[in-house]
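Late entry, adenosine-5'-diphosphate complex.
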Amino acid sequence: MGNSIAEVSALKKSFGDIDAVNGLSFAIQQGETLGLLGPNGAGKTTVISLLVGLLKPDTGSVSIGNSSCAEAGDPTLTATRRLLGVAPQALSIYETMSAQENLDFFGRLYGLSGKKLRDRVNWCLDFAQLQDRAKSYAGTFSGGMKRRLNIAVALIHEPAILLLDEPTVGVDPQSRNHIFESIEALRERGMTILYTTHYMEEAERLCDRVAIVDHGKLLALSSVNDLIEQYGGASMVTGDLAELPKEIELPGELTGKSIRFASNTPLQDVAALSAQGVAFQTLNIARPNLENVFLTLTGRSLRDG
Amino acid sequence: MNQVLVMAIKDLRLLFRDKLGAFFIIGFPILMGIFFGMVMGGPSSGSDRAKMKIAIVDLDQSTLSAKFISQLADNGSIELIETDLEPAKESVRKGQRLAMLVLTEGFGETAGIFWEKPPTIQIGVDPSRSAESAMLQGMILESIGQLAGQRMGDLSSMQDMVKKSREQLANDKSISSGNRLLINSFFSSLEGMTQSIEALQTDADDSSSSPVENGGFEFAKLESIDVSRKIDPASQAGQMKKIKSKWDISFPQSTMWGVLACAAGFAISIARERTQGTMMRLQIAPISQSSVLIGKAVACFFSVMLVISFMVGLGLLLGMRPGSYPMLALAALCVASCFVGIMMVMSNLGKTEESVNGAGWAINMVMAMFGGAMIPVMFMPQFMKSLSILSPVKWGILAMEGAIWREFSLSEMMLPCGILLGIGIAGIAIGTSLLNRE
Ligand SMILES: Nc1ncnc2c1ncn2[C@@H]1O[C@H](COP(=O)(O)OP(=O)(O)O)[C@@H](O)[C@H]1O
Ligand SMILES: [Mg+2]
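Prediction complete; structure with ligand written out below:
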């Protein structure tokens, strides 16, 4: 394990009757991309708000930074905030300012100026691929462009941790792909990222480790492979047989010529069947994914919300 | 501090990018100011307004006095009624006539001769309409000027005049010898000129307009006579006397519209920061929570000062003449502080831009109506007058008027300024605590 750069412990936050965050503890390691995967209302945004000090926890604590950061501490401390870059779930950019002006303004708020500021603004415009629209009002942008700018603004001051709250919500597939690519580029540069989503594909593709949350509770936290191995259950094998086999004990039920069975060792099972002379017309082996993990952990589907 | 400025600059930029907001802050007050100025004082051209009814008393009964009267009557904006002294006074007192003019005896002898002692015209003006009387005085001078021009054209009277003047000059011991020489040579050349003109037999019909004032000579001495009872300086009429230009009233009043628009504009901008999510970014930026609000306050303060300066500048162009610039600056500072406070409270009146906009302008309208930004307080019915003390707009207008034409002393400024500052401080305190409570 590397060293952690942010930690929350026994975090609780409720709004009236709703326990939005209910005893959450985890640490973000330096350089990793940690996913917070959970359905809508799981408490992801609340966790982010607690992490950046927008909300005060009812109980528990948040600490940002480590011994290598002079500004380490509570996120309500002004200096600590410099370590954090946030792309909120709801867009938060000035619609009547251009992309460049948005970046420039927030850069100045973080104390940048002069050449350093200009360089950062240019870097961010490149990052968001908005160089050719730099001078247009953000209000004239497409949903995807606004999202990209929303993320770029979070990066203007080169934060130690980037917090992305559902950055692909309401984005067309092309922009979504672009966002994935730019996040992967950030990962390669060693950026520490907290990425919340309710899309398991995104967590699988982008995250080193994934925390599964539901009803404000942490259900599991590990690498994608570990989670699947632990909670994903068996692979699902489905196929159509060329002809009905005789006197062979099949591992699953047959409906017509279609076979379907779960297996922890799907390749071996299929090989064994072939060796016994069973010929497949079609064959599909579905490895378990985070969806299965979530189902195992909660009895519900991620999409049910 | 630096960050506060960064935010204030951003806010000002955004404010003026909002076309409608900018219109209400600058365009609307200008329109109001000019509109009310016109309604109150009437356009100075005088062509399309009701004629001024003037009573005229001719005690001289000379050809020249008759000429003067007919010339004055030719002026399209005056309706002359010749009467005797007492009925004339009575008519002005009762408000039937705007003013009375008395052409005193001997008027005809000296009128229009600019080196003579100017003739005396007595004027009695309805004190509540002193703004119009300035116009009347201008017209009288113009008519006298025409008289002078005609005398110049009338050669025989000109030659007569020159002869007479030379005699006078010879007898006048008060004129130094050097000047005497100068004036004598002037008369000689004048005589020579009139003779040569006579020789050419050209008719010097003077139809060209003649100057009202010429090289500092007085064409007529206007002497005012008191028509009505003694005027209490605090009375409406007394107050009105101090008004030097029609813009004096319309500008403080319409400037307040710009100020109200600034307050609403920034209140809305705070709500907009919330709805468009940028407030969150401001809150997590490495700046203190209070500097977010201070930034707004500074920007609002600055924009109010900008509006006031702009309106004063425009007023100056149109002829407004503030009595005291330091007092005007003081008034502006207090107005700005007051409306920063109001803005802070206003921004809490709703969660969305629309609700803050609606509630903010509703309050603005009430404040404007009772505060005298629609009708001046002095023209309000009594019940509105007594309610007007509740409106910050009233105190803002009073402070500005105090500096512009009411001739307030520093201690008289204390009342409106103190109230404005009080409202401002209370508003900032209440607004800040409400905003921080979320
Ligand atoms: N400001 C708030 N006031 C009341 N309830 C809230 C507030 N913010 C979040 N909640 C509730 O807390 C729960 C978690 O919300 P949130 O953190 O936004 O979930 P997620 O981001 O995972 O969708 C939800 O039930 C939501 O309705
Ligand atoms: Mg959320």
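The two ends of chain A are 32 Å apart (CA to CA). Will revisit in the morning.
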